[in-house]
Write a structure and sequence with these properties.
13 helices; 20% strand; disordered N terminus; six-stranded mixed beta sheet; eight-stranded mixed beta sheet; alpha/beta; single chain; FAD/NAD(P)-binding domain
Length: 448
């Protein structure tokens, strides 16, 4: 049978549609919830009975909590020559918000993913970093300083370098950004805003009783670009909106950092890089899967009941979240209703990509933020790789629930299944990467 030229061309035009109809199904996406010890935490909250341990041990110091605070405490005790102490961690993995994971593509963070380069007054952090080989003769390890490009922002249909939306600013916007920088510099000069906070000038501040959005209005800032930028900073650091964040905390985000910082310091596994090295030295002191259900005074000592053993300690150092203490420490139980603390829930996800999605605008950065997104964007675990090209990668996606009250957000986290969060995350990313679902093979979700 002969085919005319017209019929042949018509067949070529129709071919893509026919191919689309016969394509294989979309890539299956594996994953699930990562163990976040929610059930153990709820048992402490609800006062459920816990198994009574048979072992009883005597220690000089008991540290409750094996996150970065507890591990830093262990480091300080060890360097002072203490040996008779224990660190009790609720979860199966120590590290808290500085935990990390790893797959056949890369190591990746589960929450905290960088450290601002500590200034000369942050002596203890610098001493730790000297010990870890990050600081030698006053010079920072170049491999641990974040490579370029560090940040980019998706706005008006494409990616732009940096997080301040300069390309979309009017002259008025630019003037307000300059004035905001001047105000932050003046606040920094007061000495109230430092890292660590113990170095700061301690005094009661009216900024504690004012929300960040009220402070911006009080200062006469009206630029929508500046308001977005400051709101993003509050959501990123505190999981809270401008309205929910105190002016003191909002200013601290900017004023506590070194004005000429070269960093930040970061690694593929985020702050898990630090955790792993502390555990390599101090892991013998750390007991995981050991939630402490009760701390009570007995004479001149303290009795701690954990899932592993009962401990008699001369000193207890609380290194777990402060809001947990009234549920565990007998002497603080009356504080439950008047603590005043409100803690923001979070969701993070590690997304494994078999290939990079198509890009619009500037090249991928370490931190990638979407303007006016409900999420906080993603960091790229393979960004610090020294290889010319990584064909596969892992992105760590962050979501703060600043649009809900913390109570409603916690209920949402518990109520929704994994597939709901997978789709919500990928829908957000599809706004900037239309082919994201063809790239992703796995989404693992952690509810904090």
């Amino acid at each position: 049978m002969s085919i005319s030229r017209r019929e042949f061309i018509a067949g070529l035009v129709a071919a893509p549609a026919l191919v689309g109809l016969t394509n294989k199904a979309p890539r299956p996406i594996a994953g699930g919830f990562v163990d976040d010890a929610m059930g153990v935490g709820h048992s402490l909250r609800d006062g459920r009975a816990v198994p009574h341990p048979r072992d009883r041990r005597r220690v000089h110091v008991a540290v409750v909590g094996g996150g970065i605070a507890g591990l830093s405490t262990a480091w300080e005790l060890d360097r002072r020559g203490a040996r008779n102490f224990v660190v009790l961690e609720l979860a199966a993995q120590a590290g808290g918000n500085a935990r990390s994971g790893e797959n056949d593509v890369s190591a990746y963070p589960w929450a905290a993913h960088y450290v601002p380069v500590p200034g000369p007054r942050a002596t203890l952090v610098r001493e730790l970093f000297v010990e870890l080989g990050l600081l030698r003769d006053g010079e920072w390890d170049e491999r641990s300083l974040c490579f370029s490009p560090q940040e980019r922002l998706f706005m008006h249909g494409e990616w732009h370098a940096g997080l301040e939306p300069e390309f979309a600013m009017s002259l008025g916007d630019r003037a307000e950004f300059r004035r905001f920088a001047d105000v932050v510099a003046a606040q920094r000069a007061t000495g109230q805003f430092t890292i660590p906070s113990a170095l700061g000038v301690s005094r009661a501040s009216a900024l504690d009783r004012l929300s960040m959005d009220a402070w911006l209005r009080e200062q006469g800032f009206t630029s929508p670009r500046l308001w977005w930028y400051v709101d993003y900073a509050c959501r990123d650091d505190y999981g809270a909106s401008l309205r929910q964040t105190s002016a003191w905390a909002g200013i601290h985000y900017f004023a506590a950092r070194e004005p000429d910082e070269r960093g930040p310091l970061t690694w593929p596994d985020g702050n898990g890089w630090i955790t792993k090295r502390l555990l390599a030295k101090l892991g013998g002191y750390v007991k995981t899967n050991a939630p402490v259900s009760r701390v009570r005074r007995e004479g001149s000592r303290w009795r701690l009941t954990s899932a592993r053993a009962e401990y008699d300690a001369d000193i207890v150092i609380w290194a777990a979240p402060a809001f947990v203490a009234p549920y565990v420490v007998d002497e603080l139980r009356a504080e439950r209703r008047r603590t005043g603390f409100v803690y923001s829930p979070w969701l993070t996800a590690n997304i494994t990509l078999e290939r990079w999605p198509a890009e619009r605008g500037s090249q991928p950065a370490w931190d990638n933020v979407i303007y006016d997104s409900p999420g906080l964007g993603y960091v790229v675990a393979t960004h610090q790789s020294l290889r010319t090209f990584e064909p596969r990668t892992v992105w760590t996606y962050y979501h703060a629930f600043a649009d809900l009250t913390p109570e409603l957000a916690r209920q949402e986290l518990v109520r929704r299944d994994w597939s709901y969060w997978r789709d919500r995350i990928l829908d957000d990313l599809a706004r900037v990467h239309a082919d994201i679902r063809d790239c992703v093979s796995r989404v693992d979700v952690l509810r904090l």
